[in-house]
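Working notes for the structural subgroup meeting. M.R. asked for a predicted model of this chain before we commit to crystallization trials. I am recording the input and output together here so anyone reviewing the notebook later can reproduce the run.

Input as submitted:
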Amino acid sequence: MRNVNCVGILTSGGDAPGMNAAIRAVTRSAIYHGLKVKGIYRGYRGLISREIVDFKSKHVSNIIQLGGTILKTARSPEFATPEGRQIAYNNIQEEGIDALVVIGGDGSLSGAMQFAKEFDIPCIGVPGTIDNDLYGTDSTIGYDTALNTILESVDKIRDTATSHERLFFIEVMGRDAGFLALNGAIASGAEAAIIPEFSTEEDQLAEFIKSGFRKSKNSSIVLVAESELTGGAMHYADRVKNEYPQYDVRVTILGHIQRGGSPTAYDRILASRLGAAAVDSLLEGQRNIMIGIENDEIVYVPLTRATKNQKHVSHSLIDLMKMLSI
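Returned structure, recorded in token form:
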């Protein structure tokens, strides 16, 4: 088993509020345990182009409250090739990096898993994605902040929806998972959520129109996940305009506003715990795992399980939303 003396950190994929808190936790936890730390800029692309900097405690001062990632993130088609990964590994060796901590979502952790299979380098994944779609952890870094951003936005939109007696379709992120749309709908008191796990059929839309937008309500809010399976908010707004022209329909696409902003207390604490646990796991000799949290306890999840298994939306939450929206 190789000893770990120097840890490399990178952020990859879509940015998520709380990533900086995780970078800070990994850096300071590693330094506390006598390890060297190197920050890798622009994700896997920076690993190939060798954008690697020695990190000291001062590099992560005053960043816990910042959204985004100070290490930046970028796509890297080259890392998807064996040749690109070989260049990345050569750079790691020359920099004296003994282990990698990768903060990101499903694609980022899949890249880490592939890299770990090909080369003798321990890779530890830290789940950072607003979609909350990684298997093996109750929550991912950035999810709580994004959910609160959605909640604040929907509350404001409802003021207009009520004033004008309109039906609003609000599109939120979640290309492959409906956690943001469903829990955002429950938290904001929306009438329905259209998510990729349970793509709405025509009769379901008719049922919503019948029960959700009726005389006893002067507005209705429907959250729609931005997925090819749902068709997005515009798809449903067009259907209502064609099939139920008596309703005044509007669409709001929240877009990248959901990714930004100062992380919530929950996300800062979660990121701090997961980041420190990533260093602990390396000191224990762990490799090729994701650090997760289940029932408020840190857990180690093999990267293969975290990336290949699907995290399911709870049917009880869907039933709750339906019951509370009558």
